[in-house]
Amino acid sequence: MKICFPVELDKGLESVPYAHFGSAPVFLIFDTETESTNAVANQNLDHSHGMCSPLKALGGEKIDVIFVGGIGAGAVSKLNNMGIRIYEATRGTIRDNIKLFNDKAIKEISIEHACKGHTGGCGH
């Protein structure tokens, strides 16, 4: 399984999840089989509000799950339609979030829980 974490800086498993998917400078992809990480620059960083293209942002990387502090409803819909599940990242590191995911102690984000204009409930 490949898990994507939007981050500001690539510090491997010690990276901290970024507050919003579309404006994250980097996506860190964790492969659960190899326990390795791969950093991908956000290819859609300069999009207009509400016009995020998740596939373009991820540079075509194949992922199964995304952990994020906040994400817009349009991106949630597009990602869910591709079979990608989205979870709310907790404070702490990627390592902390992976442990919570393995322990089934993390909340899945639905369209109803997506950001509303980048305010009130979006990110940490």
State the shape: globular
CATH superfamily (homologous) name = Dinitrogenase iron-molybdenum cofactor biosynthesis domain
Number of domains: 1
> Briefly, what CATH class?
Alpha Beta
The poorly predicted ranges are 117-121
Q: Give me the secondary-structure category.
A: alpha/beta
Widest β-sheet, arrangement of strands: 3-2-1-4-5
Q: Report the CATH topology name.
A: Nucleotidyltransferase, domain 5
**Helix percent band:** 10-25%
CA-atom Rg in angstroms: 13 Å
- Strand content range: 15-25%
State the helix count. Answer: 3
Give the N-terminus to C-terminus distance in angstroms.
26 Å
Biggest sheet statistics: 5 strands, mixed
- What is the H-and-E element order? EEEHEHEH
Mean pLDDT: 83
Question: Could you walk me through the main structural features you see in this protein, from its secondary elements to its overall organization?
Answer:
The structure is a single chain. This protein has 124 residues and is of the alpha/beta class. It has one domain (2-113): Dinitrogenase iron-molybdenum cofactor biosynthesis domain (Nucleotidyltransferase, domain 5), CATH 3.30.420. The protein has helices spanning 54-57, 73-81, 94-102; strands at 2-7, 26-31, 36-41, 65-68, 85-88. A five-stranded mixed beta sheet has the order 3-2-1-4-5, covered by helices on one side. The longest helix has 9 residues, at 73-81. Mean pLDDT is 83; it is low at 117-121.
Explain the layout of strands and helices.
Elements: E1 2-7, E2 26-31, E3 36-41, H1 54-57, E4 65-68, H2 73-81, E5 85-88, H3 94-102
Parallel strand pairs: 1-4, 4-5
Antiparallel strand pairs: 1-2, 2-3
